[in-house]
Amino acid sequence: MTLAIATPVIAVCDNHGITIRTLNWNRVDKDSPRRLLVTHTRLDTASRATVQRDPRRFAAWRQDDTALPNLSCMASLTGQVLKRVSTDSGWQVTRFDAASHAAWSIDSRGAVHTQAYDTLGRPQSGSEQLKGEAFRISWRHAYTDTGSADANAQKNNLRGLCVQRWDDSGLQTVESVALSGAIIRQTQQFLLSAQAQPDWPEDDAGRQALLEDKIYLSTISADARGNSLNQTDAMGNQQSWRYDISSHVKSQYATLSDGKKQTLLEGIVWSAASQILEENSGNGVTTTYRYEPETQRLSAMSALRADSIRLQDLDYGYDNTGNLISITDNTIATCYFQNQQTDGLREFTYDALYQLLEATGRENAGNTTAPYAILPAPIPTDSNQTVGYARSYRYDDSGNLLSLSHQGAASFTRAMAISDVSNRSRLQNDAGTLTPDDVDTVFDACGNLLNLQVSATASDPLIWSASNHLQTVNLLDRNGDIQQSDREIYQYSAGMRMRKQTRILTKADSNLWTVDEVRYLPGLELRRHWQETITGDTVTSQEATEELHVITTQAGRAGIRVLHWKTGKPDSIDNDQARWQISDNIYALELDAQGQTISREEYYPFGGTAVWAARSELETSYKVIRYSGKERDGTGLYYYGYRYYAPWLCRWTAADPGQEIDGLNLYRMVRNNPLTLTDESGLAPGGNSAQPSASEERFKSLVPTLINIVREQISDARQALEGNARVVPQNSGWAYLQNVWERWNPLNNNPSSSTNKPNEINNETRSIIKDYMGNDSKETIKILKDALEKMDQAAAA
């Protein structure tokens, strides 16, 4: 249930109609008095926000006018943000060149970034320097009309485009682009070392010396409407899609490199409102959906195997606002264990701000490892031995978790220590002696968590790059020498992870290491396991004892992973095993090609395994996609794209790289409403339906292709928009389209959005587009309006 429906929100505006205060009321139970929460904004004479305070900082300011605000900004006369100071993410100073490009910046860690542009204003190279370290060129771009120009540039539609990007993952090359803008042929070369931080020289030979010889080629073909038809990954596996007249996917297939064919999706039935009514998977499972007629919210979902065995039968209940208040799985038989009765009912209660307060459900009777349950417990011998649980959550006025109380197989209270001047927090110790002043000791100046607490007495150090990407997790420290410590290492391209390597010292006397590595390519993961010996600067690697190629795709609602072993296949698992995973943020059902259950997992609302059942330990060791359909690393962290999520902390490990895109609390997870909202990329939450509507899915399917063309320019576009700049980098209109998706998506239900009507484009936005696009501005505005209208229709549907 929810303590209030349609709680009033009062916006106080100045004489220009700009909101300067927002008044919210909240109560945590029906008998408690309501609390007034004020969010405050101060504007300059040009109506730009210079100071913002959340309810906690506003209350502190009312008591002491020297109290720091959450955010303060200083802008130039042209509106560019020269300095911003955030209590969560630290300060940053940016200098712009005469063309309004961000040319130099420094942040509170002392990390300096510079960017160089060519005569057309296109990003050419970027350097970075951590305090006390040397400058390095962290990325370079090459265009078809500069350097070693491609003689077939016109034929391949590459004129003027960035076709090569050297960055922290290696080299990405675009070889051909369709008229629609879709990349149809691209390659990837990785760095020689997964531990390298490259300093890219100017000469081709010098850059090539840092790269592996192996080139991974991925190709795709698309129809005239931009729909993907066939995709061939770097190992020669092919995926193909078929569409109906409305561009809805109607079937999907995979052909492995050895010629073996598999049907992934046999068909989908769509409603007139572009909602999926029935989905027939390639493993013989038929999933049906029902929706509330008035709201089109999902009301029921049922998954039926070919032999008429019902695998899932879920009923959803909502309050009048749309918050999920109950889920009933009718396939769960009533269980009697330890004088308790459990079934498939889960119920949820919210406060007046729609933050989750209470959750009830069932859990394995063996879940007694709280409160630091980083990884799931071993598979229980009897999955029917379940007991009921109840969890309660309490928050401060800024939305920071104060405490989590759990009653169930184990009873505990997990308390948090919260800073008085920011939204940073850490686990309280068992003695409860940590003070607000102790919180900042486990964060760096940019708000990145430095120690990942995994037990009451142990924590894993985290190392962050100059760009605030998680670079290394120190799993086992050995005398402060990172090169001799067990660790997990990550490499990124344009903020997205491309490589993960886990290194465990097996024999110290011979310096023998066991290495597990994952490389991420379009539609493919390459997973290898081997051992290597390090002697001085010489690395001697043995042959991989296991090499696994995982073909990844989404077929309707199900995520599909096909496991193809080149070497080291386990005896009890068939090669080319296909796995259909039907998952959301609270359930994960994994099925094989016959529709038989491989594993079943139920989660607590903010993550963590409540119920865990599987047919074998070996098979589940290859399950890496878990809570919210995201990959869980061996650290216990979930990788979302832009950030890592710690489910036992119920919050992110770093401040939001999108800054205040989702409010002034840069660590809060999905506004503390993890059942109604989801976060796809680690930036901001969106609505949570069992599957997206067709119009939303169609729009979102185009965004990655568009971003691939200009992903090196996304950060520049975001900086230009945040600084109200009138110049946006060449060809970054599509990057702006991605920004529109993030900021104006009506499914986000974001009260801080710049417009209350998603299908409108405000005058400031029109001005930016006009100054950038010139004569093409009308067409660009039309594209944006069409996209926004589709998102608006998706929300209405």
TrEMBL record:
Source taxon at top rank: Bacteria
Record-linked InterPro entries: Rhs_assc_core, T6SS_VgrG/RHS
Gene3D superfamilies linked: RHS repeat-associated core
Organism field: Salmonella enterica (Salmonella choleraesuis)
Coiled coil: none
Protein name (Swiss-Prot/TrEMBL): RHS repeat protein
Transmembrane spans: none
